[in-house]
User: Fold this.
Amino acid sequence: YQGALYAAYPAQGIFKSDLTGNQWQMLAGGLPTSPVFRIALAFGGRTGVGFSNPQPIVYAGIAVTNDVYRLFVTRDGGVNWTELPAPPHDPNQLSFNNAVTVGPYNSDEVYIGQIAFYRTLDGGRNGDTNDYSKDPPVTDKSWTPLGCCQSHPNPFRKGLDMHADIHDIVFAPYGSFLPDPSQVQIVFVANDGGITRGRFDSDGGVTWVPLSKGLAIGPS
Assistant:
């Protein structure tokens, strides 16, 4: 958040410094104490549009092993961390896919990229993943899959599906596009298929469009 830098290293942990970067402090306060695989960080303290009154909220998605994933949040800049229950868990590939991002307007709107792409609107507090393949569908959990490998209906995903293996998630900044009911947010997702653009409408649904024409694509 404003006035601080964060860095995360596999097998070491999460570190914090002021903006000079001259002195780093290793953070603990509830984080795993044993070595872990990849760590993804996301700032969640925007308030409204911009950073007029940023809050010290940071999410940390930690691949403890290649198939064990844990999600933490701090609301005091890293002094204390709370583990969130039952986050999305795509096993056997967490050393390859681990991305976390927070939506531009709401600190509880969190996105996770593993093999698939997930969203929660409650900050992950309730945990577990909704499942629209069930009859009746499971809809009271925190996380909803919005992309990759979905053979069953999903009321929040429109258009083409997204390629598997998510590596980065970036939202278009406020003022970079003209909002209307069909696109209140725009997100760009880097995956093993290239780059995909998602247009979120006012009902929370996302329409995916591939942007990889002309790119030389190869898994990394």
